[in-house]
Amino acid sequence: MKYAMLVLKNLTRSKRRTILTVLSIAVSLFIFSALISMPAVVNQFLADSASSTRVAVHNKAGVTYGIPEAYKQRVVATPHVVAATAQSWFGGIYHEVSDQFPNMSVDPEMVGETWPDWDISPQALHDFQRVRTGALVGKETMKRFGFHVGQQIMLRGTIYPFNVTLDIVGVLGGKAPPSFVIFRRDYLEEVRGRPGFVDVIWVKVDNSANIPQVSSSLDEGFANSSSETLTEPEAAFYGGFIAGYRVFFQLAELMGIVVVFTIGLVAANTAAMSIRERRTEIAVLRSIGFPAHTILSMLLAESLIIALAGGLLGCGAAYTLLKLVSVQGVVGTIRMPAPVLFAALGAAALIGLLSALVPAAAAARRNIVDVIRAVA
Amino acid sequence: MDAAYAVDLESVWRIYRRDEFEVRALENVTIKIPAGRFVAIVGPSGSGKTTLLNLIAGIDHPISGRVAVGGEEITEMKERELARWRARHIGLVFQFYNLIPVLTARENVELPLLLTPLKKTERQEHVEAALRVVGLADRMDHYPRQLSGGQEQRVAIARAIVTDPTIVVADEPTGDLDATSAEDILTLLRELNRRFSKTVVMVTHDPRAERHVDEIYRLDKGVLIGIEPGKGATEARAATSS
Fold first, then answer.
1. Which is nearest to B25 in space by CA: B59, B7, B50, B56?
2. At the topology level of CATH, where does B36-61+78-241 sit?
3. Residue A276 parent element (H or E)
4. Alpha-carbon gap, residue B227 to B31, rounded angstroms
5. A372: chain B residues, CB-CB within 8 Å
6. How many residue contacts between A and B have a Cβ separation below 8 Å?
7. Which of B57, B102, B107 sits opposite A287 (nearest CB)?
8. Could you say which residues of chain B have pLDDT below 50?
9. Which of B148, B159, B233, B239 has the fewest CB within 10 Å, making it most exposed?
10. What is the pLDDT of residues A159-214, one digit of tens each?
11. Can you tell me the mean pLDDT for A288-292?
12. Burial class (CB in 10 A: 0-12, 13-18, 19+), B179
């Protein structure tokens, strides 16, 4: 602690250089944490919302091909199946193209049993089953657009050439994706002209241990039909659904890492210059009796403080910006999850330590006489 | 090992290698400096003065021979042990002061005390006492850039004596000063020697030093060629007898 004064004083030695170094690290970690937040949000979504006892049954050729809604009766009759709910994607937008959130229609009868982890209130469930235009809205979408229960909203069709007018009857809570809006499929079917096809049948199984048995039973049962099925756990289903974005996410992660690595090199150069300028002072400290490891620790502490200040500034800016701008992603609003914050601060600490390690270790061990003679 | 000698060098050799050349900085030098003396090491450039001082200060090693300072043999000490030893026994003064520019005079003088177990208040007491001794009690919170060369060297001397070291070693302490400041620094070093019985070993080119020191050790081409009495010893004897 008594060396803290020395470390802090050295940070003020060249205020402009310290500030510029802090800012360069801040900018790189701003970019890093913002880019890394996108895939992290998706991973978080999968971890949070996917249930281990829920499976999705869809066309083996792909979700967009659909399966007959009549399959649901056979699914419900399968052993170990607790509930099944058919779902069809609507994909409407609210007012503007930017006002997007995932919206789909579902059968109202077994919503509570299929998604018990969504904490839908009994009143909301009752109203959803009673009101044909009823809709249940995720908390984030409610907040984002200032919706309230009882409000009527209109979603403009982007896939279908018609709009739907919905009455909000309740809020999706618990582990429900916070941006989702669900409304009744019978209402959508009526507007569509009742084609009798659904995108997915969500199946609640009594025990996760029975999922393989249920999956194979369903897929074998629909084998050789006009719409063969693929049954997969919820996490795998969502994972496959967003697989198309993976390349983009990986690119974002790669770019984030490249930016941090580049700034790491810049920080290393700055640290080397700063330490080189002070080599005489370092030699003097050693001649006074300061051990090499104490000097090394002080130099690393300086670099660490600069990097962490930059990290906090960059992460704070990214967190604030994502919160203010409310960037809408595939599965919800992109926010900075806590692991991204820790990863970014960890990256900052690494930049601080690694950038100064080599020049600091060399300076702390350089021959005192050589340094003093070179200056004299 | 004779503890009566502050510095006891026996058959010391120091040879540097500069690329393909071998530089014999010190050749078979034997020097014994009694405790409480103020001595000057003089000689032309390249005579080995600073090398000798570095060996006494424990910041350089001989290739052969024996170096004992304050009755303690330092020849075989490892770097970490030497650092501890320097902190306890050596006060170093450089030609170019070598103060830390971002620290005030008070903080510069406090530096060696950070290596001791003293508390903050105790450290402050020592710092203020040292700065009073060098006549800079009113400049404690000045930064080096706010001080003259002579004042900076006084701060450097305060830093050297603040831990009450066994020996003060000074490398050309007047080399970067004007005549008046140089005289002041020599007088200050003599006072430290007289008032506090501090052994002071100084490398110098300054002819004024002869009037202040007890002995002059003359080196040439790495060899000790003579020891002469300085006028400081005569003045001290005269002062004692009168």
1. B50
2. Rossmann fold (3.40.50)
3. helix A246-277
4. 10
5. 59, 94
6. 66
7. B57
8. none
9. B239
10. 889 999 999 999 998 888 888 999 999 999 988 887 789 999 999 999 888 999 99
11. 92
12. exposed
Q: What is the C-alpha to C-alpha distance for residues B115 and B107, in angstroms, rounded to an integer? A: 13
CB contact under 8 A, A375 and B90: no
Calculate Rg over the CA atoms of chain B: 18
B91 token code pair = 């006060």
Domain ranges of chain A: 4-46+245-375, 61-227
For residue A376, pLDDT over 50 is answered with no
Model confidence pLDDT, tens digit, residues A108-166: 999 999 999 999 999 999 999 999 999 999 998 999 899 999 999 999 998 889 999 99
* pTM summary value: 0.72
Contact B39, B213 (CB under 8 A): yes
- Contact flag B83-A292 (C-beta cutoff 8 Å): yes
Contact B87, B98 (CB under 8 A): no
Q: Which residue has the tokens 């004042």?
A: B151
Identify all chain B residues contacting A9, using CB atoms and an 8 Å cutoff: 100, 102-103, 107
What ipTM, to 2 d.p.? Answer: 0.89
Compute the residue count for chain A: 376
Question: Distance between CA B53 and CA B135 in Å, rounded?
Answer: 26
Tokens of A205: 């199984």
Q: How far is the alpha carbon of B108 from chain A, nearest alpha carbon, in Å? A: 10
